[in-house]
Amino acid sequence: MATILLDLTILDFARGGGTVTVVTQHAITGQVLMVAAVDREALERTLTTGEMHYRSRSRGLWHKGATSGHVQRVVSLTADCDGDAVLARVRPAGPACHTGTATCFGDMPPDAIATLDGTIAARAAARHPAGSYTARLLGDRNLRLKKVGEEAAELVTACADDNRARATLEAADLLYHALVALRSTGGGLDDLRAELDRRATAG
User: Fold this and answer.
1) Which of 25, 50, 109, 141 places its Cα 20 to 30 Å from the Cα of 71?
2) pLDDT (tens digit, 9 = 90+) per residue, 179-203?
3) Is residue 107 assigned to a domain?
4) What's the domain count of the chain?
């Protein structure tokens, strides 16, 4: 288990009647999973076990996932500037909400990259609708591989010229074509995130 650090002395438990607010965020996707309260005991248990513990008016000290198995393994704990809230970045083993949904906020709008990946997935599921450039790429192996190579070369050139604006555009083009190529293999953004997370935790 990785060492998780948080200086409890900087937290102002008195302001909240013995608790502070914790915002729990998915460490890989960035989704806000839930908002709850923690007291010193809950945070001490969290720091000791590496899994989120909360303080509930109805449950008392509450180990998330103790009965359901949907534990939240902590990646980091960060106090806010006022010392009355904590951001908990976690890897959840299941849904965060008691209703069975991934988050307590329902269907949250995806970020720009997730939206792009969703569009690519929709084009693939629609069996390549006519008039779509993405569909054309998905249906033409040689074209999509050629475009990945072209966009990579253009990004290299832009970076060699120290041209930030053009490099940004070329990086966006490369990301798009890379996601299309990944989708053609049956993969997607979730696979990419999982691999990046594996690398981040490996060393």
Assistant:
1) 109
2) 999 999 999 999 999 898 888 777 6
3) no
4) 2
- The contacts of residue 24 (CB under 8 Å, 6+ apart) are 32, 33, 34, 35, 36, 52, 72, 88, 90, 96
Query: Residues near 97 by Cβ (< 8 Å), separated by ≥ 6?
Result: 33, 34, 103, 104
Residue ranges making up the domain that contains 127? 112-197
How far is the C-alpha of 71 from the C-alpha of 24, rounded, in Å? 12
* DSSP letter assigned to residue 33: E
Q: Which of 146, 175, 114, 187 is nearest to 136 (CA)?
A: 146
How far apart, in whole angstroms, are the C-alpha atoms of residue 92 and residue 73? Answer: 6
Identify the residue whose tokens are 């253009």: 154
Residue type, 56: S
Domain identity same for 117 and 84 = no
Indicate yes or no: pTM above 0.70.
Answer: yes
Measured in whole angstroms, the distance separating CA 94 from the mean position of its chain's CA atoms is: 14
